[in-house]
C-alpha cells in the first residue's frame, strides 16, 4: 500500500512538472509572436474609438442615434487592452528594454488567459473551484496540450497569435465562463457554489462586462441561458398530472431554483441590450452579402477548419473511444456524463448555425475561422477533458486505454513546435532601426510587418503606430516609417 502511495505521489508530481513546463513553454512561444496591426487602435486609442471610450455603456449612442465606426458594444475588450498595454510594458521597462517589454507583455497577457481558461475548464469538469488538488492537476495535464500556439493554432487556436484578437475572443470568453461558472457547476454536478453576498452582488455588474466585451458573448450567453432553461423545463415538467398546459408551466416556473433566475435574467437582459447597441455600428458588415450566401459559405469554412490539419481526427478518435467505454455497462453517472456531452453538442450546433447572422467580413471569407471557432474549440477541450478524466478517475478503465490518450496528447504537444513560421526577430530589428534613426521618415530595408497587417507604403499610415511607440518609450518623438518609399 505504501509503495502504491509513493507511486501516486510521483505520478502527480510528474503531472505538476508537465503542466508548469507547458506553461513556461507557452510563454516562450508567445514571446516570439510579432505584434499586430490593431494594437494602436485600442492602446492609444485612435480618434474613431474615443466616442466609445467616453460612452462605455452606449447610452448617448442610443439617445442621440449616433453611429460609431467601431463596435459600440465592446467597450470592456478595448478598455482591457488599453489598460494592460498602458501599464505593463512601462512596469517591465524597469528590468528590460522598451522593445522587449512589449513582447514580454504580450506573452504575459496570453499566458494569464491560458491559465485562467485552464482553471475554468477544470472547474466545469470537476465541479470544484479548488486549485491545489489532484483532480485539478490531472484535468489540467489532460487539457493543457490542446492550447496550441504554433501547431494547430490557425484551426484550433484558443489563444490567438494576434494579441488584440486574444483580448477580443479569449478574454471575453473568460469573463463569460466566470459569470456562468456557478450555474454550470450546479447544472452539471448538482453542487451549489455559496458565494459571499457582496461577491454575489458583483455578478450583476459582471453581466454588463460580459455583454459589452466582445462580438460573440451576447449570442453565446443567450444560447447557454436558453439551453439551461430548456433543461430545467424538461426536468421539472409535471408529465402525469391531469392539469392544463399553462398550469404545468406555472409549476415549472415555481420549481426552478431562485439562483437560476438571479444569474440568467441579468445576463439575458444585458445581452439583448448589447445586440441592440451593436446595430448602431456603421461599419458592422464592411461588405454586403446576402444571408443565403453566408449560409452557403459556412460549410466550406467548417470543412476547411476540420480537415486541413489532422487535429480533429485525433480528437474524434479519442472522443469516440471515450463514448464507447462510457456507454459500456452504463451506470446512472455514465448517463449524466453522456447528457452533458449531448447538451454541449447542441450548443456547438446552434452556435455554428447562428454565425452567419453576424455578417460578412472580407478577411473571414467563409464566416467561420479560428477566431469565431474559439467557443467551439473550448467545448471540444471540455468534452475531451470531461470524458477522459471520468474514465481515468471514476470508471478506472484498463491500462490499454492510456495508450490512445498518451498518443493524442503527445501528437498535440509535438505539433506545437517551439518557433513560429514567422517570428518577431525582423520586426524587432525594424523597431531598433526606427528607434536609432535620426530621420523623420525611416525607410526600412525589409518587408516585414511592424505593428501592421501588411507592408506600410505611405508614411502617414504609420502615424498611429508612431504615437504608440512614443507611449512605450521606444522613440522619444513621432517618427514615421515605411517599408518602401519612392
Structural description of this entry:
With 486 residues, the protein is mainly α. The chain has 2 domains: 374 residues, no CATH class; 58 residues, no CATH class. It is 65% helix and 1% strand. It has 21 helices and 2 strands. It has a two-stranded parallel sheet with strand order 1-2. β1, α21 and β2 form a beta-alpha-beta unit. α9 crosses α11 and α16 packs parallel to α18.
Question: Measured on Cα atoms, how large is the radius of gyration?
Answer: 24 Å
Quickly count the helices.
21
Topology as a string of helices (H) and strands (E): HHHHHHHHHHHHHHHHHHHHEHE
Bulk shape: globular
Largest sheet, if any?
Answer: 2 strands, parallel
Counted beta strands: 2
Overall pLDDT level: 91
Uncertain segments of ≥5 residues (pLDDT<50)? none
Structural class: mainly alpha
Strands ordered across the widest β-sheet: 1-2
Measured by DSSP, the beta-strand proportion falls in under 5%
Share of helix, binned: 55-70%
| Number of structural units classed as domains | 2
Distance, first to last CA: 78 Å
What are its keywords?
486 residues, mainly alpha, 2 domains, two-stranded parallel ribbon, 65% helix
List the helices and strands and how they pair.
Elements (H helix, E strand, L loop, with lengths): L1 H30 L7 H5 L6 H5 L4 H6 L10 H18 L5 H29 L7 H10 L9 H4 L6 H27 L7 H5 L1 H9 L5 H20 L8 H11 L2 H21 L12 H17 L3 H17 L4 H23 L19 H22 L6 H14 L9 H12 L4 E3 L19 H9 L8 E3 L4
